[in-house]
Amino acid sequence: MISEKVKESESQDIREVQDVSVIFFDLIRHQTDIENNAVEDFKNRNKHQELETKIAALNHLVEHLNIEMAANNL
């Protein structure tokens, strides 16, 4: 009877450890996903800033060309 209770207790302990392990690995996976998303967000922000810089440069060139065309029409 005692040995059955010990076995039952050991089985319960094993199930609890397995449950905790699953939760732990889910947390690690979730943390990894968060870190990967942060890296992607950073890359996207950098790309966005690069595009804004290029657009600003193109707008500057268009303004310069408009000024030159206006000067040539005089």
Description:
- The protein is mainly alpha-helical and 74 residues long.
- It is built from one helix and no strands.
- The termini are far apart.
- The protein has one helix spanning 2-73.
Question: Would you kindly provide a brief summary of this structure?
Answer:
The protein is mostly helical and 74 residues long. The chain has one helix at 2-73. This is 13725_t:CDS:1.
Compute the CA-based radius of gyration: 32 Å
- Note the main sheet: none
Q: What is the structural class?
A: mainly alpha
Number of helices: 1
Number of strands: 0
Strand content: under 5%
The percent range for helix content is: over 70%
The secondary-structure element order is H
Question: Which consecutive residue ranges, at least 5 long each, have pLDDT under 50?
Answer: none
Question: What is the CA-CA span between the terminal residues?
Answer: 109 Å
User: Could you say which overall geometry the principal axes of the C-alpha atoms support?
Assistant: rod-shaped
Mean of residue pLDDT values: 93
Organism: Cetraspora pellucida
Protein name: 13725_t:CDS:1
Write the layout of secondary structure elements.
Elements: H1 2-73
Features:
rod-shaped; 74 residues; 97% helix; mainly alpha; 13725_t:CDS:1
